[in-house]
Amino acid sequence: MKNGNLIVISGFSGAGKGTVVKRLVKDYGYSLSVSATTRAPREGEVDGKDYYFKTTDEFRNLIDYNGFIEWAQYVDNYYGTPRKFVEEEMAKGNDVILEIETQGAMNVKRQYPDALLIFITATDAKALRERLAGRGTESEEVIDKRMKRAAEEADYMEQYEYIVINDDLDRCVQTVHSIILSKSCERERNIDFIETTKRELKGN
Ligand code: 5GP
Fold it and tell me: Is the pTM for the entire model greater than 0.90?
């Protein structure tokens, strides 16, 4: 059986990538990796569903035990992708989505050169700020920090295979799904299938 694809989705804070990812899971059944973080839960966030909320000591412990595929610091907090779930899902042939920031994405690409990197963005910087402010969960200070971080993250956009603008949620979800589907059709991922087809047709 073929391993599942590893799909990395990044994007500026406020670009709506969280909503896009939730829809991909709901509509198309992708497996979603739940990250660990030292950030405090936002209202309505559930431990084990949105994140595994950890103390800094617990997080450091997991780093020491090689529990993460990657981890990174983002605006004063740590975030990391637990290794076990991702490896097990891929081995089962399931496509796994990681919703992570750019440093983590680069780290994943080094370890899994086959990973598919998709960057989701809003139409422009003004729309980003408006969406962050409109979310109402972040203070002015945090919004400023996140906008500053977005400016840094923009330098990594060229490293992503696909850039998708989220100006319409349905279209964005469909576009990302199509990109993932086409990955499975790449010649490099079908070498065994090509060989089998040739053998069958040639009768040996
Ligand atoms: P938020 O605090 O808004 O939930 O997430 C902040 C940033 O951390 C987002 O860009 C999100 O994609 C990223 N992030 C979430 N989980 C992980 C993770 O496991 N690893 C890394 N490197 N980034 C993550």
Answer: yes
